[in-house]
TrEMBL record:
One of its GO terms (molecular function) is phosphorelay response regulator activity. InterPro entries: CheY-like_superfamily (IPR011006), CusR-like (IPR006291), OmpR/PhoB-type_DNA-bd (IPR001867), Sig_transdc_resp-reg_receiver (IPR001789), WalR-like (IPR039420), WH-like_DNA-bd_sf (IPR036388). It comes from Pseudoxanthomonas spadix (strain BD-a59). Pfam families: Response_reg, Trans_reg_C. GO terms for cellular component: cytosol; protein-DNA complex. Residues 123-221 bind DNA. This is DNA-binding heavy metal response regulator. Keywords: DNA-binding, Phosphoprotein, Transcription, Transcription regulation, Two-component regulatory system. SMART domains: REC, Trans_reg_C. The modification 4-aspartylphosphate is found at residue 51. One of its GO terms (biological process) is regulation of DNA-templated transcription. The keyword DNA-binding applies. Gene3D superfamilies: 3.40.50.2300, 6.10.250.690, Winged helix-like DNA-binding domain superfamily/Winged helix DNA-binding domain. Residues 2-115 form the Response regulatory domain.
Amino acid sequence: MKLLIIEDEAKTAGYLTRGLGEEGYSVDHAANGVDGLHLALTGDYDAVVLDIMLPGMDGLQVLQALRAQRDTPVIMLTARDQVDDRLRGLGAGADDYLVKPFSFLELLARVQAITRRGRAHEATQIQVGDLHIDLLARRATRRGRRLNLSAKEFALLAALARRRSQILSKTVITETVWDINFDTNTNVVEVAIKRLRAKLEYPGETKLLHTVRGMGYVLEVREDQAE
């Protein structure tokens, strides 16, 4: 899942970006309200973590402008603990509210809760042949065998599974999984695919992850298993 943090305090932003990244999220960061609103309106985010005190535009202005065009889930952050500030944030369309200082685990739980609500219309269980993927539990099994995947390997598998039978280019994969525009000469995708394939396909098992030369990769069951 892809998150946007709009926070001008570098220490807080770095802490959240690192912590959420370790939990498998792809995270973008904006240090002011103007840049944050631009990213929120042009990017495809599952949730936004939005500070109320920002340079350029404050968090309430960002939220109001965002709500005029999108319903992306938003968690407001603020150092204030006044009831009227919380009411203003919620009244402007915030989905949740946290007062600084807060526990990272509490923020993580709230992010998980609002992204579940935001994706309620999407399937949380995906089946591709004998491969079963539980997007909420972040777990994948094949014929009862649990796949011991890293956070990025699971994100890669989930990206392919959500668009099963569709070819994903290396560019799409890097933007979806790493949220970085890698140099086209890098082999990061090939390395990640190789590692995922080694865990996904044991000897004797049907191939599910296919390379389409010159185009990208696709997850699907095929009649003809030749690469």
